Amino acid sequence: MAAEVVSILSLIVFIFCVLGPLLMVGGRRLIPLPLQTLLVLGSLINILLAALGKWIDGGNLSELLSLPSAVGSNVILLPIMAMAGGFLVAGALEGSGGFAALRVVINKMRGTPLGMAGTLVFIAQFATIFAMPCGRIQAAALLPVIITLGPEGVRLITKKQMVVLVTALAVNAAASCGPSQIGGIGQIGEGFLQQLGLLTNAQEFGIMIGTAFTALFISLFITRFDMDEKIRLSEGPSELSVGTSATSGRSVGAAAAEDAAVSEQRDPSTRTAEEEAEIAKKFKAPLVGYISLGIFLLALIGAVFNLFGKTPITTTLLVATVLIMVIARLSIRQVIAGIILHPITALVAGFLMAGSLAVSGGFEALSNLLRWLAEFKILGIGLGVAGMIALFVQLETIMPMPCGRILAAALLPVVVAMGPASGWLPGASGLLSGDQLACVLAAFIVNAAASCGPSPIGGIGTISEGMVRSEIGYLRNAQSFGILVGMTPLAALTMRFLVLTHNPFTLRNLGLYFGLLAVVFIFSFGVVKLINPSRFKKRRTPTQEREQNVATWITFLLGGAVAGVMMSIALFLPDPSGLFAIAGTTPFLTTLAQGAVGGAIAGALLLAT
């Protein structure tokens, strides 16, 4: 009896620690403590609760003393060390001018067949292409590039284009740590499945498409009225301005409004050679920067494709760091300055919380709660497994943490426990088959990684809002919608139809897959177009504000429903070949309805938090 009470209490402690920093009371956070500190304190409370429960049930002293070591055994060193190695390389790149070289390369790409449009798409997807252990690395390197391309810089793009690109890059960078081979969240999930690399492709494709949906949403939803009201560019002449605008005495804030209209009519390819030369001067890098960038790319490609044999990823990154230090004559202090402690401490805190939940029975309590949620019915109608999964995979974005590793490390064991029973995981419930579990893991991990983008407590999205000096939360809805409708369900669809299928190139398989992608795209474009607030001219009235809020709620409810349907199709669509194992006997149409309801609830909760 004591063990059951302790398991419920430990789950309550966990939920309180997660929601405490998110809940606002009187304009202040309910618990004004750093999240990592709160998680460590919660872990200690759970250990004490577990010890109390064992003591009441007659446990001996040795069992009580073994609890801290049982918690520590859940701290997995591989992703932590790989992440630290990635940060060391990032510090070396920053100190040697490698990131400056990257900025020059991106500027040069405008003159290639890619043109400006292709270059901007490449920038938005760069973080996932070269996935680092934390998206903040790429965001810190590339966000200044985007700003220098905008109205306050060389004016290659308009203010609206700059905001769309910043929003898309932020959510792409946040999600990129999921499939990262050097300390990404996906490595933890693949470790549970004991199949390294299984989730990577599905996650990367989901992120790529989700980034496009995010850009589409922000482009359609943001009007010039919103831009003028909620984004404040700095006053005074910009050092990066080109031509007469730098010396005309006009403020950048005044010039930007005129520039938005001029840039929309003027093709950047019509710039004169003198203007291009002036722009090129703003992008400079030393030779050693290009060399260090080449060393980094070689190490990254080698680590991902095993070009160096069985060499651990951490060793490869460490060797690359030493080479860059020697070539660029960097000090250890310069390199260590590139290590961002926040993601590392977040991962450790998440592991500690996971360990405390394991010893206190919190995982079992949460598994029972999810099973109850799947079986709960009102008037004979319930969420079922499909609805519960559609809601659960969006949980990380519903409760957005400043680093997705926090909840991922604590909740991944619960996800795995939904799969088939195994000797090393006695609490497995068998709700899902092994194939279905892989699809759920792909979706859950992408959602977890991306969730730090729109997080209001230190996410990458807040960094991007600071870069464009917008109101806090201005970009959040667009990022959340992209994660809800694009990234999360499409990762599961890709896993189902392209990874876990023996022959993905059959006409039926490709038709289903791309047909579903088309449905998601048409829905996203259509529903966002319907709530486009461009019809609100000049200043909105209170009635128009209410209309926009209602339309936004409808959008997220419908978006969540579509995402839930897509998750249900990925998990429960009958497979004539029998290669995809399906658990459950609920009729397929009922499953789709349950998934839609669960997804709609997720969309509502996501918008409410």
Low-confidence stretches: 235-267
Fraction in beta strands: under 5%
Largest beta sheet, briefly?
Answer: 2 strands, antiparallel
Shape, principal axes of CA atoms = globular
What is the radius of gyration? 25 Å
Estimate the mean pLDDT confidence.
75
**What topology, given as strand order, has the largest sheet?**
1-2
The structural class is mainly alpha
Keyphrases for this structure?
609 residues, mainly alpha, two-stranded antiparallel ribbon
What can you see in these coordinates?
Mean pLDDT is 75; it is low at 235-267. The chain is an all-alpha fold and 609 residues long. 52% of the residues are buried. It has helices at 2-19, 35-56, 61-65, 67-72, 77-96, 98-108, 115-129, 135-149, 159-175, 185-193, 200-221, 224-230, 252-265, 273-281, 287-305, 313-328, 332-336, 341-360, 362-375, 384-392, 395-398, 405-416, 434-450, 460-468, 476-499, 507-530, 542-572, 588-608; strands spanning 24-25, 28-29, 377-378, 381-382. The strands form two sheets. A two-stranded antiparallel ribbon has the order 1-2. A two-stranded antiparallel sheet has the order 3-4.
